Amino acid sequence: DGHLNNSLGSPVQADLCFPRLVNYLYLRFGGDIFVGFGISLTCGQSEDPPADVAIELKAVFTDRQFVRNSCVAGEWGEEQSSIPYFPFIPDQPFRVEILCEHPRFRIFVDGHQLFDFYHRIETLSAIDTIKINGDLQLTKLG
User: Fold this and answer.
1) Are 57 and 69 in contact (CB under 8 A)?
2) Which strands make up the sheet holding 93-101, listed edge to edge?
3) Cα-Cα-Cα-Cα dihedral sign, residues 27, 61, 59, 115
4) How much is the pTM?
5) Is CATH 3.40.50.720 what the domain over 14-141 is classified as, yes or no?
6) Which of 84, 98, 117, 139 has the highest CB neighbour count under 10 A?
7) One digit per residue, pLDDT tens: the chain, 142 residues?
């Protein structure tokens, strides 16, 4: 329906249609200490039973990693963390693009492809919620 919820439960108006749209997240770091941030695309918001997580991205500054994983039927899969470089700089804006195509998500940061993450959920059309957490300022979602 074009409505997504952020991690605080506040509605975010967005023109998103999974699974065939490039989705841009324009983000900017905030604060003085940069530990990391997370972005999750989920199939609803249920906590009991937990909603499936199609992809969870976590930037960990202390380890210079951009970790990804998914959770299907309450079970987390094998975490992936290999990247050619760490693209984030504290206090600098960046753009994350998540392209959902068959059979994978393609993740771009500032226009450069960083990695692919192959789908672990079966029904991509069930993805309807984005959760963003960490010390970030969301400037655009589209």
Assistant:
1) no
2) 112-118, 104-109, 93-101, 22-29, 136-141
3) positive
4) 0.79
5) no
6) 98
7) 344 444 444 433 333 334 333 344 555 554 444 578 899 999 988 888 899 999 999 998 889 999 999 999 999 999 999 999 999 987 788 888 898 888 999 999 999 999 999 999 999 889 888 888 887 777 777 7
Which residue's structure tokens are 């589209």?
A: 142
Backbone angles phi, psi at 125, to 5 degrees: -65, -15
Q: What is the 3-state secondary structure (H, E, C) of the chain?
A: CCEEECCCCCEEECCCCCCCCEEEEEEEECCCCCCEEEEEEECCCCECCECCEEEEEEEECCCCEEEEEEEECCEECCCECCCCCCCCCCCCEEEEEEEEECCEEEEEECCEEEEEEECCCCCHHHCCEEEEEECEEEEEEC
Q: Which structure tokens are listed for 107?
A: 């993740």
Q: Where are the domains of the chain?
A: 14-141
